Amino acid sequence: MNQENPKKTPHNEHAGNLQKDPDDWVTGAEPMTAAQGSYLKTLSEEAGEEFSADLSKADASKRIEELQAITGRGREAAQ
C-alpha cells in the first residue's frame, strides 16, 4: 500500500480524480454548511422533495447530487 501523502503529490497527477468521495471527507460528519443548506433547500423545493436541515456535510453533498439529477441543475459543471 502506498503511504504517499496525497496533499504533497503534484496536482496534475490527480487530474482524473477531481472530486473526493464524500464518504472519505475528514469533515464529512460535521453539520452541512450554510451554503449547502441554502442550495439543498432550493433544489428540494424545485424537485418537490422534502428538505432535511439536519444532514451532515457528506450526506448533504450526496443529496444535492441526487436532486441535481432530478432537477437538471448542475449539469453544466459536471460536463
Question: How does this model look, in words?
Answer:
- By secondary structure, this protein is mainly alpha-helical.
- It has a domain at 30-78.
- 42% of the residues lie in helices and 0% in strands.
- It is built from three helices and no strands.
- It has helices at 34-47, 57-71, 75-78.
- Helix 1 packs parallel to helix 2.
- The chain starts with 33 loop residues before the first helix and ends with a helix.
- Residues 11-17 have low confidence and may be disordered.
Summary, kept brief:
The chain has 79 residues and is mostly helical. The chain has helices at 34-47, 57-71, 75-78.
| First and last CA, distance | 32 Å
Please tell me what the overall shape is: globular
Count of individual helical segments: 3
In angstroms, what is the radius of gyration? 15 Å
Uncertain residue segments: 11-17
Binned strand content: under 5%
Q: Describe the biggest sheet?
A: none
Q: What pattern of helices and strands is seen along the backbone?
A: HHH
Nearest-integer average pLDDT: 80
Percent in helix = 40-55%
User: Helices and strands: which structural class?
Assistant: mainly alpha
Number of E-type strands: 0
Give the secondary structure arrangement, pairings included.
Blueprint: H1 34-47, H2 57-71, H3 75-78
Helix pairs in contact: 1-2
